[in-house]
Amino acid sequence: MKIKVSAFAAIAAAVVVGCNQPAPEQKDNKPCEPELDLSTEKLDRFGITNKDYLSAASKRALQWKYVENDWYRVFNPMQPLKGDLAYEEGVVRRDPSAVIQVDGLYHVWYSKSTGLTDGFGGDIEKDKVFPWDRCTVWHATSKDGWTWKEDKEVAVPLGEKGTYDDRSIFTVEVMQHEDMYYLCYQTIKSPYDVRTKNEVGLAWSKSPNGPWTKSKEPILKPADNGVWRGEEQNRFNVEKKGDFDSHKVHDPCIIPFNGKFYLYYKGEQMGEEILFGGRQIRHGVAVADNPKGPYIKSKYNPISNSGHEICVWPVDGGIASLVTTDGPERNTFQFAKDGINFEIRGAVKGANMPHAIGLNRTIEATADNPTKIFDWGLSHVYNSWHYQSIMRFDSYRKTSHVAPGAKKPDGDKSDKVQDN
């Protein structure tokens, strides 16, 4: 296979240098060296003219398993929506689900609340501590993906007082499977303090317009092996941090895969640190035989070293993921043939990139265009700390670096070839 131009300069730090095979015969306590491809083609590709003097960066480059550029995307500035999803002062609309199409209409679900965010300084029983606090799930439809009409009533309401979802329901995702519709979402049980543990709930319906039946119990909970230190409301004060998801399970998304259902989620750890490239955020997956569960967490969790909001889609017989915002592998496309063991496939140009992506699942990603699903979709923006709105993003694939009017390389598959 002919090697193409790489877009990997931005992800060198994500590749770990190691040895391909153990070397028990090693002497003098010298560290083992990885096996490197020192072919003339590879050395010329990466501009290495003296193979006897290789920097750590050059060694990482020579170990890259995937150096094609089929996954590289450039995002344009997001555009405001029209109709009921246009920005509205005093209202939070955020974290849109994937977009699906039923009977000629686009459908989206999202978190909605009203009023200012008070933070944790006052009465947490009465105040609104985050923009996503005191949210419920709402639903809107559109004929063209630009002008949206919001339902007059809430789609998924809060639970009765004392239930696991009596405080807030937010960050919703939709799955359509065998004539049924499933919404998974984060939940909060009151009171909402800095040590509150988020969980994941589920609702289902025979119609995208509802009514929705909610699960009586969470379908996913944080790990229970972390230990807080003391009684003070301080989420960084721990005796034991526990699993990567010992504090919160966030951003759920269920994907039918290999005859099962893979629930991908973001994990937050008790005593979360700023570590090696941002917040200590990682992703996990739980698997079930039935959309309603039970979901069993993978023994291989966590399945990412970085990330924030979950953004996953099926392609080429596996699962792809866009990892954003936090950690040393942020702003990368990753792929796992088995849905678990993800490897980096491409970098993403950070400018204009949305971070709370509602994928447009009416667009099919293909093996020769694995990121086509990003042609357009929805995301939220912060109009202020108090109020957010949903906007529309679009992007294009870029596989070459071409000046205006210049001849493009053979095999170029860019949606656009001119540099901006």
What's this entry about, in short?
The protein has 420 residues and is mainly β. 3% of the residues lie in helices and 32% in strands.
Spell out the key features of this protein.
single chain, 420 residues, mainly beta, Tachylectin-2, Chain A, 2 domains, 6-stranded mixed sheet
Structural class: mainly beta
Distance between the termini: 30 Å
Order of helical and strand elements:
HHEEEEEEEEEEEEEEEEEEEEEEEE
User: What is the helical fraction, as a range of percent?
Assistant: under 10%
Averaged pLDDT? 90
Provide the CATH architecture of the largest domain. 5 Propeller
- CATH 4th-level superfamily of the largest domain: Glycosyl hydrolase domain, family 43
Estimated radius of gyration = 23 Å
Compute the number of structural domains: 2
Low-confidence stretches: 1-18, 20-26
Q: Count the strands?
A: 24
- Named CATH topology of the largest domain: Tachylectin-2, Chain A
Please report the first level of CATH classification, the CATH class of the largest domain. Answer: Mainly Beta
Biggest β-sheet, characterized? 6 strands, mixed
DSSP helix count?
2
Beta-sheet strand percentage?
25-35%
Overview of this protein structure:
With 420 residues, this protein is mainly beta. The protein has 2 domains: 9-63, no CATH class; 73-397, Glycosyl hydrolase domain, family 43 (Tachylectin-2, Chain A, 5 Propeller), CATH 2.115.10. It contains 2 helices and 24 strands. It has helices spanning 40-45, 56-63, and strands at 73-75, 79-80, 82-83, 91-94, 100-102, 105-114, 136-142, 147-150, 168-177, 180-188, 199-205, 213-214, 227-228, 238-240, 248-257, 260-268, 281-288, 296-297, 312-315, 318-323, 332-336, 343-347, 376-382, 388-397. The strands form 6 sheets. Strands 3, 4, 5, 6, 7 and 8 form a 6-stranded mixed β-sheet that branches. Strands 1, 2, 23 and 24 form a 4-stranded antiparallel β-sheet that branches. A hairpin with a 5-residue loop joins strand 23 (376-382) and strand 24 (388-397). The longest helix is centred in the first third of the chain and has 8 residues, at 56-63. The protein is globular.
